[in-house]
Structure formats: structure tokens, C-alpha cells
Write a structure and sequence with these properties.
Layout: E1 8-13, H1 19-32, E2 39-44, H2 66-69, E3 75-80, E4 83-85, H3 89-93, E5 102-104, E6 112-116, H4 117-120, H5 126-131, H6 134-142, E7 148-150, E8 157-158, E9 169-171, H7 195-208, H8 222-230, E10 235-236, H9 241-247, E11 252-256, E12 259-260, E13 268-271, E14 282-287, H10 298-308, E15 309-318, H11 329-341, E16 347-353, E17 359-365, E18 376-380, H12 384-397, E19 401-405, H13 416-419, E20 440-444, H14 446-458, E21 464-468, E22 480-483, E23 495-497, H15 510-519, E24 527-531, H16 543-560, E25 563-567, H17 574-583, E26 589-591, H18 602-608, E27 611-615, H19 619-626, E28 632-635, H20 643-654, H21 673-684, H22 693-700, E29 703-704, H23 716-735, E30 738-740
Parallel strand pairs: 1-2, 1-3, 5-7, 8-9, 10-12, 11-13, 11-14, 14-15, 15-16, 18-19, 18-20, 20-21, 21-22, 22-23, 24-25, 24-27, 25-26, 27-28, 28-29
Antiparallel strand pairs: 3-6, 4-9, 5-6, 16-17, 17-30
Helix pairs in contact: 1-7, 7-23, 10-11, 16-17
């Protein structure tokens, strides 16, 4: 039964470049809203009469026009587009306001507001919003005592102020950390500590096929766009359209828009009327002059075309005539790849035309039309952890795989930008590196990166390359880099930041698991799994630190009344293990790692422990423990830096080159010109940042001792979806998105 409550009015400050943020804002709202209540969302974008060139964002002053736009009556919520709701904004809308004209976190922090439009209409008028700057408008409100009152903090958490279970609205304020990267020409992006919360909402929206508008409820501008489309000038189909049809084995072709397929020999061009979109099907669906379609309606229109096509979709757009963001290559690549994920097996091509109607560039996804599956080479190196990640990725891809074991010389330590695309650093001739070359080569770490690049060059560019970890070479030299926050790499279109390293620990045999459970049955619960690493730059586990770790773990068992299940790793020095074991209570289960050990209890500890304590040196151990979803805490190991790394870290902090420094309110400072320049050096591989596990812990939301273990911020399901995103991106290297000039 419909609610009799007052409709919730939300005014959203946005701009065309924020198309991803806008969609996720709306999707998040749909997840938390009261379905029985009416919610009215007014998108404020490119409002006429405003001088937007003076603002940091394209919607800064729109908020001050809300009282008059809302009819000078009732209530209204204002939100910036770079926010997501985690709780029902109807509760915010119903908050008591007393005599206040607006509620905000502070009188000047108005990115989230609840407004009494009648009171504020006399202060913030449309004319003033257009003419005055933000500072003057806030001063006008400050002149009237009592006009502002504080907004409860759960309705506006800025970046790392977020508290799971308490925060109802999260604001991504640091512009160069925004996960959707709206302005790559202005900022060099880095992963946001809470970026996975936003990205997971986008993944869910993609999986659900969610769009703000639909064929049943198009935008208000769609009718005018359809009229323009009907009168648009005709374009002759490019000659290679026939090749695309033959490649996809398409004989039945339907077209929408003024695309003349009759000129293409051997094809049955017939017009497809708009009202047929929901039912018409064909091998290949063509649509010309998408620039005449309002950008708000492009997502559902493209989705409809893919649903109607049996094999392929062909599109044309005049970039000079298209409205933002449809005049940008990145927009089309983003949109088509996401729609194509929901319609596997469809090939697609879009021709981007200039004002004269000539094709400047084509984005093509035609792998689905080829026979067979690509052969994959795994470049095994010296580190078992790197090789394990390659195995996980290969298993998920399920393509034919061959292992190429690389043996390195001292020259492998040279920087990647110096080695280039070469076999430099390999021992011997390695005859396994010979034609026929693979369709895809997977490598991990800096030692094998240059070999992967050499293989790509030998193949004439037909091989695609994926590197896991940190290449210490130009990021642009690889088709895709899968990395984690610990390496501090800047975000690029070919760099995917995963929250944890790739990992899929095989479940222990049920019989063995029962044996370990029986062996530990006399130990009081909860069982605390203590996962111990060792020396890995810049972290060091010496005997003194190991003793403190043992004492801290013992204190934790006293607090919880539980027992310790302790296992060391291959990097744990014997002296450190001795010191650790000596500090543990007598009842603790102790296991000392040994290579090729048949009864390693590590998988059983992960499966059976009730909570975990992990040393801070290993990203893999931290990720595997977090993936269980059980309470987890980290024991920080001291960092011992080489002089050069210490100098770099001091310069990074001193000069504000990175966002580890924070502003006055605890959020990351906005990026400066020096930071962007430094990122160019990082992207070129000339400079490498120190491995920082604190960044990984922050991304997971993991507590540090002496805090008691708590569930990670990122759930196992969310971590699993992030891992699948990495696999999907690898598939798209061969299945989608290559560019033809």
C-alpha cells in the first residue's frame, strides 16, 4: 500500500562527466529507500545562467538555487553526486529541524544539506546563486543567527570518517581518489581506501542491468532526440562493414537510423522502426547517428540493441555532434564493455565519425567470432607466491595453458625501464620461448615483465600481456596490470587495483580437516589462528619483535579465553620462530614451516580458526585471512628502510607528492601539480614507491593490535566479486575493445 508520507525530494548536483557516479548514486538509493514511499530526484546539471568556469566542480553553486527551484516551499535534500547512501534518506528528510533553515555538517560544509526551502528562499535566491560565489552565499546565511543547525554526522561521512553500521551517507571528497575517475585530464588517480564499496555497487548495477532511464521510462529529451534522428542526414555505410558482417557470419541484418546497408553487396538491409526495438531480432543490428540520441537514453538503447542481436551490433556516432559524455572514446568503451558482459558472445563495433562523416576511429570487439580459445603462457619465476597467482588466474580463465619456467641471472635486478622488451636477465637460451607465440602471456613481478614484453614484440603485437604485481617498468608497456594497494601505483586505464592479491586456497580434504579438528578439540574456543610471516622489505621479524608478537598473542588468548593455532612461513627465521614459541602459552599449537611438508596445517587453520592475528609483512596471508570474513587483526612489524627508500619516503611526505598526508579534517589532501608529476615518474617505472601494507590494511578495513580482532570491512562476497572483475578484464583483452585508427 502506498505510503502517505511526504515525498522525499532530493536535488543532486552533477555534470555530464559524472555519468558513472550518477548511476551508482541512483542505484545505491534504490537499494536503501523505502519502497512504499515516493522519492523525487532532481538532477541539476548544466543549469543555464551559471558561470561554471569559476568552480572546482561543474555544480558548486547549484545547491544555492534549490530553495527557489523547489518552489520556495517544503523540504529538500541536497547531495553532491560523489556520494552514496547506505541508509534510507527518508530518515534524513524527516529529521526535526526546529527553527533552522538548513542542516549541514558545518555551516560551510554544505555537500549534504536538509533545507527548509521557505526559510532559505529569501537568502539563497536563483539570481544570487548565479551571480555570487560560494563564500559570499555562505556569508549571507551566516548573517542570520540560527539559520544553520548541525547535521547528525552519520549523514555525511567524508572518506575515512566512514564507520560501517553507523554511516548512512559516504562522501568521496578527494577528487584524485574517486573510484570512477571522472577527470583523467586533470588528475592522476589513486585507489581510494573505501573505493571497493563504490566499485561493488557498480558491479551490482552492471549485473542487474540497472539504468537510470529505460525504454518504458525514457528521459524527457528522448522524444526530441527521436525526431532529430528521423530527420538526420544519411551516411553511406563504410566499405568494411561487409567484412564485419562476414567475420560475424551475419546474413540477416536489421538497421535503425539512416544507415544505408542496401549499398553493401550481399546484405539484406531493412529499416527497423523504433517501436520494434523490443521484439525485432537479427544476426546483426545496426544503428547510425547515435549522436542524435540524448546521452541519458544511450545505455538502455544500447542494451536493447544487444538483446535484439543474435551475433553482432554495429554502431555509428558523430563525435562532433554528440553531447557530453557521448563525444568521448572512454565513454563508449566503458558503456559497450559493460553491456557486452550481460550479452556474452556478441561482437560489436562502433565507428566514431568526424564532422564530415569520415570514420576517425573504430572500437571493435570481434573475438567471439573467431574459432577456438587463445593459448596462454605462464611465465613462472622464482617466487612461489607469484606463481600461485598465475595459476589462480589461469584456472579462472580456463583456456589452454603452458608453463614457461624462467631462470634469472643477476641482470634481472636491473630496472624494467632499462631492460625494455628483451630477454635481459635470463639464464641460458631457454628454447621454450619460441614460436608459435601465445595469444596471451601472463607474468608476475618485475623480473619477468621485460620477457613478457619481448614475447609481445616477437609476435608482431598479436600476443596480449598481463602482469601481476608491480612491473617497475612503464605501465603502458602492458595491456593490463593487476596490482594491489601495497605498491602505490597510480590508476591508469590498463591498471586494475584489486583489494587483495589473487588467491584461491583449495579447501582441505574433508578427512584431513576432521583430523585437525580432532587434534585441536581439547583446546578452548575461540581458536585464534596466528599466521606468521617474516623478513620482506621493508618489514623485518627479528627475535625481539617475535617475542613481542608472542606476548601480544598470549594477552589476546587471556582476554578471549581461547587458544592459539600458530603456524610460521618460509620467511620466518629460525631464531625468530624460537623466540616466538618461547613466549607462547604451553597450550598453544605450534607449527614450524618446512619446505615440501605433507601435513602443513595452514589451510586447516584458515578453515577452522574462529579469528586471526596476522603479521603485517604478507599481503597474501592478509588477503586469505580477510577472505574468510572472520574477525582479524594485524600485528605491525617494524620497517627497516634502505637509505634511498627512506629518502624517497621523506620527500613523498614532505613535498605532498602522495595522499598519505591528510588535510585539516582528516581526509586526503587534494592532489597538486608536484603529485601529478611524481605519478608520471611512477607510471614510467623510473621511480618505485616503497611497499606499504598499511595501505592494504586500510583498504580492507582491518584493525591493528592492540585493538581486538574485528570482521574486515570488505566481505568475502565483495572480495570474490573484485577478483572476478580482474578475470573479466583479462577476458576483455582478447574479447573486446581493441582500437582501429
Amino acid at each position: 500500500m502506498p505510503s502517505e508520507q511526504t515525498p522525499v525530494r532530493i536535488f543532486l548536483g552533477t555534470e555530464p562527466a559524472q555519468y558513472r557516479a550518477e548511476r551508482v548514486f541512483m542505484y545505491a538509493l534504490h537499494q536503501v529507500r523505502n519502497p512504499a514511499r515516493v522519492y523525487e530526484v532532481y538532477r541539476m546539471s548544466r543549469l543555464p545562467g551559471f558561470d561554471q568556469g569559476r568552480w572546482r566542480t561543474g555544480f558548486t553553486n547549484f545547491r544555492f538555487a534549490i530553495p527557489q527551484l523547489a518552489g520556495s516551499c517544503g523540504r529538500a535534500i541536497y547531495n553532491d553526486v560523489d556520494q552514496i547512501y547506505t541508509g534510507d534518506p527518508g530518515t534524513l528528510f524527516d529529521l526535526p529541524m526546529g527553527d533552522a533553515g538548513y542542516l549541514a555538517l558545518t555551516a560551510a560544509d554544505t555537500a549534504v544539506m536538509l533545507l527548509d526551502c521557505a526559510r532559505m528562499a529569501v537568502v539563497w535566491t536563483l539570481e544570487r546563486a548565479r551571480r555570487l560565489d560560494k563564500k559570499n552565499l555562505l556569508e549571507l546565511a551566516a548573517e542570520q543567527r540560527g539559520l544553520w543547525a548541525p547535521l547528525p554526522t552519520q549523514w555525511h561521512a567524508r572518506d575515512t570518517e566512514y564507520q560501517a553500521g553507523f554511516t548512512q551517507c559516504l562522501h568521496y571528497t578527494a577528487l584524485n581518489l574517486q573510484p570512477w575517475q571522472p577527470a583523467p585530464d586533470q588528475y592522476s588517480y589513486h585507489p581510494h581506501p573505501l573505493g571497493e564499496l563504490w566499485l561493488d555497487l557498480e558491479r551490482s548495477a552492471d549485473a542487474a542491468g540497472y539504468q537510470i532511464f529505460s525504454a518504458q521510462a525514457p528521459s524527457r529529451a528522448f522524444a526530441d532526440g527521436a525526431a532529430r534522428l528521423a530527420s538526420a542526414p544519411r551516411h553511406v555505410a563504410p566499405a568494411d562493414l561487409a567484412d564485419f558482417a562476414r567475420l560475424t557470419d551475419s546474413t540477416d541484418v536489421a538497421t535503425l537510423g539512416p544507415l544505408d546497408l542496401n549499398a553493401v553487396a550481399g546484405m539484406s538491409g531493412r529499416p527497423l522502426r523504433p517501436e520494434m526495438l523490443g521484439t525485432a531480432t537479427a544476426d546483426l543490428i545496426g544503428f547510425a547517428r547515435l549522436d542524435q540520441c540524448p546521452p541519458d537514453d544511450l545505455p538502455w538503447l544500447i542494451e536493447t540493441l544487444f538483446a535484439a542481436a543474435h551475433k553482432a551490433v554495429y554502431l555509428m556516432v558523430d563525435r562532433a555532434a554528440a553531447q557530453e559524455p557521448a563525444n568521448d572514446d572512454a565513454y563508449w568503451r566503458w558503456l559497450l564493455q559493460r553491456v557486452a558482459r550481460r550479452h556474452p558472445g556478441r561482437c560489436w563495433r562502433i565507428d566514431l565519425l568526424d564532422a564530415a562523416g569520415h570514420c576517425q576511429r573504430s572500437l571493435v570487439a570481434d573475438f567471439a567470432a573467431r574459432s577456438g580459445r587463445p593459448n596462454v603462457w605462464l611465465l613462472y619465476g622464482k617466487h612461489a607466491g607469484d606463481n600461485a597467482q598465475l595459476d589462480v588466474l589461469a584456472a579462472e580463465l580456463a583456456w589452454p595453458t603452458q608453463v614457461r619456467r624462467l631462470h634469472f641471472s643477476i641482470l634481472s635486478r636491473l630496472p624494467g625501464w632499462l631492460k625494455g622488451a628483451s630477454r635481459c636477465g635470463l639464464q641460458g637460451s631457454n628454447p621454450a620461448l619460441a614460436p608459435p607465440w601465445p595469444g596471451l602471456v601472463l607474468a608476475a613481478g618485475r623480473r619477468s615483465g621485460n620477457v613478457a614484453r619481448w614475447i609481445v614484440r616477437q609476435s608482431g603485437g598479436s600476443t596480449r600481456s598481463v602482469l601481476i604485481g608491480r612491473p617497475r617498468a612503464p605501465l603502458a608497456a602492458f595491456d593490463l596490470v593487476l596490482t594491489t594497494p601495497q605498491y602505490g601505483l597510480p590508476a591508469r586505464s590498463n591498471v586494475l587495483h584489486l583489494p587483495v592479491p589473487l588467491g584461491r586456497l583449495a579447501a582441505p580434504d574433508a578427512t584431513l580437516l576432521d583430523q585437525w579438528r580432532e587434534r585441536w578439540s581439547a583446546l578452548p574456543r575461540p581458536w585464534i589462528g596466528l599466521l606468521v610471516g617474516g623478513d620482506r622489505a621493508p618489514y623485518r621479524l627479528d627475535p625481539a619483535t617475535a617475542r613481542r608478537l608472542g606476548e601480544a598473542a598470549s594477552t589476546l588468548t587471556t582476554t578471549t579465553g581461547g587458544s592459539l593455532l600458530v603456524t610460521t612461513g618460509p620467511r620466518t627465521r629460525p631464531a625468530a620462530a624460537d623466540a616466538l614459541f618461547a613466549a607462547l602459552p604451553a597450550s598453544a599449537f605450534r607449527h614450524r614451516y618446512a619446505a615440501e611438508q605433507a601435513d602443513n596445517p595452514y589451510p586447516a587453520v584458515l578453515a577452522l580458526a574462529d579469528q586471526f592475528l596476522v603479521t603485517s609483512d604478507s599481503a597474501s596471508m592478509l588477503g586469505e585471512a580477510a577472505a574468510t570474513g572472520k574477525p582479524l587483526a594485524v600485528f605491525p612489524l617494524p620497517a627497516q628502510r634502505r637509505p634511498v627508500q627512506g629518502l624517497f619516503r621523506w620527500l613523498e611526505s614532505r613535498l605532498g607528492l602522495i595522499e598519505r598526508a591528510v588535510g585539516s579534517r582528516g581526509t586526503a589532501r587534494q592532489q597538486n601539480a608536484l603529485g601529478r608529476a611524481y605519478d608520471r615518474l611512477l607510471a614510467a617505472g623510473i621511480v618505485s614507491r616503497e611497499r606499504d601494507l598499511a595501505a592494504l590494511r586500510q583498504a580492507l578495513g582491518v584493525v591493528t593490535l592492540p585493538e581486538e580482532p574485528a570482521p574486515p570491512l570488505l566481505s568475502p562476497a565483495l572480495l570474490g566479486r573484485a577478483q572476478r572483475e580482474g578475470v573479466e578484464r583479462v577476458r576483455e583483452l582478447l574479447a573486446a575493445g581493441h582500437t582501429k585508427p
